[in-house]
Amino acid sequence: MEKKTLLAIIISISILLIWDLFVIRPNQDNTPQEVTEQQEIGNQASASPTVVLPAPVSTPAPAGQEQTITLETPLYRATWDTKGGRLVSVKLKKYQESMEPEAPLVELIKTPMPTLSLNDQFSDENLMYQVTRPATSSTEDTPLELIMSAQAAQGLVLHKIYTLDPNTYTIGYTTAIENTTSEGMALNVSLKVNEIYPVDEKGSSYTFEGPVLLNGKRLEEFKTSKVKKTGAYREFPGEINWFGFEDKYFLKALIAKDPQETMLRIKRIDEQTVELNYGALAADIAPGSRYSRDFLIFAGPKELETLKESGYGLKKALDFGFFDIIAKPMLVSMNWIYSFTNSYGWSIILLTIIIKILLYPLTLKSFTSMKGLQKIQPLMKELQEQYKDDKQKLNQEMMKLYSEHKINPMGGCLPMLLQIPILFALYRVFYSAIELRHTSFYIFGTWLPDLSAKDPYYITPILMGLSQFVMQKMTPTTGDPTQQKIMLFMPVFFTVLFLNFPSGLVIYWLVSNTLSIAQQAYINRKHT
Fold first, then answer.
1. Tens of pLDDT along 413-424?
2. Which residues make up the CATH 2.70.98.90 domain(s) of the chain?
């Protein structure tokens, strides 16, 4: 039974190593198969013909000189280009690229979005829009509105209306198509959003970066490695609530206020760029009327409360994988404690104390079980010698011995097995939660500059290893001398393992070990 306990611990640690190497859960294999550009052309040829647009205007609008418009709120600085009427930059005022004082602000949008396409015949990316607002404006408490208009063809006017809320990371976006002719128009409307993902770029090995969408209630994270050839694409039919691009800490997404059954196509348009094509949406526009659809553009941090307040299922973008059900409550608890301490370092310490208190009954039960096993070890050896040639009889007698002394042989490893899922969940939280990004812990100076990154001086992993050794020496042992020597190697193993872990996670394990030592000393004194 001691060997089983040892094996359980080793397996748990092995799983932790594998989790560290493959922290990104793989995408489901039931995504559509890759389709090539040649197949796409064949599909288009067999599709029903669409209405031909009126002839595009030959020149831009008279006042169509290209210019940029910059609007600012307390949260971000957004810039539009009148060529294409698209958002070309969003810089977040509360987040910098690094911890250097003069580091640039995080810029989420670097490629123009969104591009409007009609019947796959016309794109507004080169169309010059007119605006009436000054080139720069800012607001602290009232919404800002930016209206951009352009004539795409005779009798066909496009409008793009952006509304900035100073209190959120969402920008209202309405696309409107006006028919000024005396005849009806039947159009298919698509919206396109691009991002730079070079074919030869490996990307992060530890977290997902790339296209993401909410299809109904299901979050889809799509690896760009699945569309390596120019022209290759995948299609996701369904009720697309929102779609966009995400990285470890940030998300930019286009949200449908009134989602409907449609298609999102993820396509590689060249060796550098991946395109998200949302549509086509049917628009039947009567003479003298207009068609419009309302969206929201989210460009901000993947912060749980921010995503929740934005609505539309955006909170699903913060996904901690298999252990999400444990990780989310841990994150909520840590943030709640932070509201009192104003320090995430102390929040982690207090969260650890709370977890240890909740697990104390199991710890006590584990100690009692291991103490009991230690007492009956001579009897166990006698049985092993007596029935060494009859394993079935040996197992029966061992179970009888456990029953007589009221001992649960698996009770000793239960707390360790329970801590493994918690450890996995906290790893994901401390590595991916934006709350800990660039967050220092001011204790013993500033040797923990970033709780989401490793300890650059390796002080906490070494202290953690020492605490692991002390705790192990205090724990009752029931194995043979060889097993005990193997167990003494475990602190070294843990120390090496934790060297590159987020320092917030190392603090958790260090404090947990320290509390375990205190608990063990108390229990030893009480049961001596």
1. 666 667 778 878
2. 47-317
